Request: fold
Amino acid sequence: MSIIRPFQAVRPSDERLASHIAALPYDVYSSAEARRIVEQEPLSFLKIDRAETQFPEETDMYSAEVYEKARDILEQMISDGSFLKESSPCYYIYSLTMNGRTQSGLVGCASVDDYTGGVILKHENTLEAKELDRFRHIDTCSAQTGPIFLSYRPDEAVRTILRKIQEGAPLYDFTSGDEIRHCVWRIDSAEDIENISHLFSRIPHLYIADGHHRAASAVKVCLKRRAEDLDFSGNEEYNFFLSVLFPSDELKIYDYNRVVADLNGYTFDKILDIVENTFEIEKIGSTPFRPEKKGDFGVYHGGCWFRLTARPDVCSDDPVKGLDVSILQDRILSPLLGIHDPKTDSRISFVGGIRGLEELEKRADRTGGIAFSMYPTSMDELMRVADSGMLMPPKSTWFEPKLRSGLFIHQF
Reply:
């Protein structure tokens, strides 16, 4: 069963500061983009999450001085009152509203032992280089600065108690530059805290929706601290990692589309001839095609869109092989276009659906390549894969809205 507990958050001292500090996750931006954001908004949490922004451009972003700078800025912002630390452990509710749709999650700390013991389930692999970066950031700062995005199957008892708390006045209520409304409520009642912890103890599994690298890094820091402290009790703060937990029915996964820079020596007509055995093909024309059901794919090349529909014998009941991203990978990307490892092949790029299908056209036209629009993976598919102990292909899910960093920090 799931162990979730409150924590003494370090957080912005007031709503105005929260609106300036809150930043998209560190890995959304390139180093150059992060520098521009911090230049425009000096309070942006990116100056901590991406502390290379405080150094000349030629500075190695993975040098020890960069991580030490992140720690120093965090300590300075606590000292100058930009951040405060709660006097006692609390839970929070973090609500995000985008395009009229709201998702509300519980902010607390999840257990490292639940992660290593299979209570918290993942659906994708991590890259060692990305893990090492966040490991060093967490370890140097002795703090988790970005929350792990967790989900769970809906529980009406949890929903009822959280909705009741949301009837009160929020701690923060602001709208970010991308028109997403962010609301935060503090839960400091001992009765509410006890009830919430108990309710989550009945939930058999939690699922990592986003933040696999941050979770893996937090776990490795914990194991390092345990090795350094042979008398650890398991109750130390480093044994838990900052999380926001949402019921799965409130989440929306967007399409995660693909662009391949070339046709791997084929003509486009030849590709269509080959895939006709496994897909029904319909010419759409110049209007971008966004799939409306599972098993449908949009294909773009040379100014024209086509609809590909997987034939029945292509579909599978296997949790991974049956995913649309797997069908595309196994039937087209690997055998025809030569994309055998999408994690490392520079010829393929991935475009979140929120950026629009026109972005696919631009990228494909730039190199004479081919683009694929996808039907989104569902939360049920994600949880089915995780429940089976299997992993999805890379870039299978794109969640919106993104959680902001800097609203909650977990020190240890």
